[in-house]
Structures are given as C-alpha cells and as structure tokens.
User: Which sequence fits this backbone?
C-alpha cells in the first residue's frame, strides 16, 4: 500500500472519529439539558422531541427515519460523501440518544434552572454541530438544508440554521402549550447558532503574514516543508539602512498560525513579523468562490452568441 493511500485512510479514520466525538457532545447536550427540561429545539431533533412529548414515539426512531428521507432529497446537491458521513453521524446520534436518555431519566441536571440548562444545552449542541460540519458531516435536519444552500451561496451556516429552526421551535407550542419553554428554546437556538458560526469561522478562518528577515530563504523552505504552505517572495529595501531584504508574504489557515510562528522563531527570533486576519481567501488550498449564478449567466450569454 502506497504512502499516499495510507495517509488518505488515516485522514478518513481521523475524520470519522472526530465526527463520532462531535455527535457524542451534541447528543449529550440534547438529552441532559434539552429533552429533560422539555425545551424545544430546531431541526429534525426538535421535531422528534415534539413527537416524543406528544405521542411517546422514541426520539431516535423518528430522528433516524426523517433524516433518511431528507438525505435522499439532498443526495444530488451534496454528493454521496456528505450524505454517507451524515448517515454515519445520524446513526451515532440515534445510538447515543438511546443510551443517554435512559441513563439520565429521573436525574435531570439543573432541575430548577431551565435557563442555565438551555444555555449549556445550546453550547454543547452548537459545538458538536460545528465540529461535525467542519468534517463534512452534520447532525441532520437544518444542518443539511444549510449545507445545501451554502454549497452554491456564500451564506452563513448559522443564519440558515437559525431561520429554519425558528419555525420548528414555534410549532412546539402546539404540544407544550407553554410559551416559557418556547422562549427557552429560542435562547438555546441563538446560542447554538452563534457557536456553530464561531467553530466554523475559527477553524476555517484565514490569516496573512509579512515576514522580513535575512534568513528568508530558510524560513520559506521550512514553511513549505513543515507547515505545507506556500510563500510569495517580495523584494524589499530598508528605508533607513538601504539594505536589500527578502520579505515573505504567507496566507494560511488560522489553525496553522502557531506552526508558522514556531518555524520563524526557531530560524530567526529577530525576524520582523506582521500578522493580520483576512475576511476570505479563495484559491488552491483555501475556499472556492461560489459564483454559480454569474457563471451560468456567462455560459448562457456565450451560447446565445454562438447561435447568432
């Protein structure tokens, strides 16, 4: 087996393990702080919770069945890899719920503190959902709808989930007949949406570096080989000394910033380094520009010109 194949298998196994951990976090938050306090949430999990409170249908059963139906519709848009990983995460969520719910039954955490419960539940759900989305999977429901929209439009995942889930939470009043629980559901939802955006942006966010050093060649080679990021060399000259210098321009993921600083510090602790955050980086190794509509317009215009 080649080294490349081994690396791909290792990365795939790592992704599956991280997805399982993320779903475990989300399902624990749901069972320990949301279901036990009858706080409605969004997505398929929210619909399943309402069905459980109203008809006693097990959450894991309706959750799994509804997600399979939704993923069947999303298959063409998101592709088999996303759908396969989401089925994987949905399966784990169903298993986790079937384990956590009986264990926590009769042992409600923060029994007299529903506000605290909705805050912690929202944090855990958002953290688990955000990590799962980062590894090209989701917990199903609104996440799938958000991923379909985000596939072709540069729209915040958290905002799409928020819009879908507001409707689902409000509909929970039909069963609960209690606006206090609905309001707690809104609070949990806003917290969850904020955490999802923070996790996604925190892991995908990009930074840029300008590095001025006499040892620019050694630093550039180390960043290429150790951090696996490219550098652009810019010829520079010190204004006061008139000395010619090499200045490196580097674009990297925020998670790679520590590695870049480590490399620079090891080679030239006296290097002048400027780091700043950037709103978006598009190209090889970063995000893709989502300009599907514009591209289609150009293609259609070209076809019209050819016909004429």
Assistant:
């Amino acid at each position: 087996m080649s080294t490349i194949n081994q690396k791909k298998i290792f990365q795939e196994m790592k992704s599956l393990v991280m997805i399982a951990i993320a779903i475990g976090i989300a399902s624990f938050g749901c069972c320990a702080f949301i279901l036990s306090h009858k706080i409605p949430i969004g997505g398929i999990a929210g619909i399943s919770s309402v069905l459980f409170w109203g008809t006693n249908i097990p959450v894991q059963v309706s959750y799994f069945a509804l997600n399979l139906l939704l993923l069947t519709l999303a298959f063409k848009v998101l592709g088999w890899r996303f759908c396969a990983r989401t089925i994987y995460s949905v399966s784990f969520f169903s298993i986790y719920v079937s384990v956590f719910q009986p264990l926590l039954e009769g042992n409600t955490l923060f029994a007299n503190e529903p506000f605290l419960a909705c805050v912690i539940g929202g944090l855990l759900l958002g953290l688990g959902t955000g990590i799962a989305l980062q590894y090209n999977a989701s917990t199903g429901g609104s996440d799938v709808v958000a991923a379909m929209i985000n596939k072709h439009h540069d729209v915040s995942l958290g905002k799409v989930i928020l819009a879908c889930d507001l409707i689902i939470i409000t509909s929970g009043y039909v069963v609960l007949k209690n606006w206090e629980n609905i309001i707690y559901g809104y609070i949990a939802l806003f917290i969850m949406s904020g955490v999802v955006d923070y996790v996604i942006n925190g892991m995908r966010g990009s930074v840029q570096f300008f590095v001025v050093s006499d040892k620019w060649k050694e630093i550039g080679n180390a960043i290429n080989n150790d951090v696996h990021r490219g550098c652009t060399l810019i010829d520079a000259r010190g204004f006061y000394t008139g000395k010619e210098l090499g200045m490196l321009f580097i674009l990297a993921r925020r998670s790679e910033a520590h590695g870049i600083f480590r490399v620079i510090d090891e080679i030239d602790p006296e290097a002048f380094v400027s780091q700043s955050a950037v709103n978006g980086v598009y190209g090889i190794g970063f995000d893709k520009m989502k300009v599907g509509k514009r591209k289609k317009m150009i293609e259609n215009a070209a076809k019209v010109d050819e016909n004429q």
About this structure: The chain has a mean pLDDT of 78. Strands lie at 206-213, 231-237, 244-253, 272-278. DSSP finds eleven helices and four strands in the chain. The first helix runs from residue 3 to 35.
